[in-house]
Amino acid sequence: xxxxxxxxxxxxxxxxxxxxxxxxxxxxxxxxxxxxxxxxxxxxxxxxxxxxxxxxxxxxxxxxxxxxxxxxxxxxxxxxxxxxxxxxxxxxxxxxxxxxxxxxxxxxxxxxxxxxxxxxxxxxxxxxxxxxxxxxxxxxxxxxxxxxxxxxxxxxxxxxxxxxxxxxxxxxxxxxxxxxxxxxxxxxxxxxxxxxxxxxxxxxxxxxxxxxxxxxxxxxxxxxxxxxxxxxxxxxxxxxxxxxxxxxxxxxxxxxxxxxxxxxxxxxxxxxxxxxxxxxxxxxxxxxxxxxxxxxxxxxxxxxxxxxxxxxxxxxxxxxxxxxxxxxxxxxxx
Length: 334
Prior knowledge:
The chain has one helix at about 115-120, and strands spanning about 5-10, 15-20, 25, 30-40, 45-55, 60-65, 70, 75-80, 85-90, 100-110, 130-135, 145-150, 155-160, 165-170, 170-175, 185, 190, 195, 200-205, 220-225, 230-240, 245-250, 255-260, 270-275, 280-285, 300-305, 315-320, 325-330. By secondary structure, it is mainly β. It has an eight-stranded mixed beta sheet with strand order 16-15-20-21-12-13-19-17, with no helix packed on it. The radius of gyration is 24 Å and the shape is globular. It starts with a strand and ends with a strand.
């Protein structure tokens, strides 16, 4: 499999850079993998290869510099309309127990200024891409477990990998199972990275649910294993969330303020927030960190300048990117 990334100079000199493979798996006792970098550019380019240990915590990707795996060479020159092979070598001497996960970050180095002047380019843009690499023992296996919680009028699906090998969840879907009734389905919002590393969790969220999917209801979760293309299914009951959250939207000049309060001060992390009107037009919000009286009970977010659809009395969709996945709520502008 090959991924092609293209970019354009201001001087209209188009080029592309590709890397293959885009997913690296090395099984012990093997210690070496190869990565091919190819360029369609009319001149040679220099690339720097950096390797990071990759872990996940609370739905966040954590990259830590490491010397357990090295790139040879660390800086490579790819010839014009040519390719170059680099070797990724695990030099750590400790035996692999399960899986070690890494990210291979490749950055294009800027061209010298004098070269740009000769080519007549007005601006320089460089490229960067990230490749997952897994070094694992042959007996490693993932073990997926799921849980569902109703949070307000949204649903949060937690997928936990308690095994010792990563698992990539594909096409996860859910449906409510009710006796003598037609099965209901809702669209889920997937996490940014559907690869769940060993001993890690990821969350799927939802937009506001109009009906069904209540606490105590039984749902069926279906998902595909990309490695085998097998469909797995699991049934479970929706649990109540330990969190209770309240949303309030009010106009402030040419912007909107979104006040988020939590019952008993029990909060979850909100990383990004946006508002959407009835026509689907969205505006982003920034957190107001200067509002001290909300520190213990909630948060205050301020939108970018609003458009015509965000008027007092109109209903807006609040979408929050949280540590529990992407959650949606409906609120009227007060």
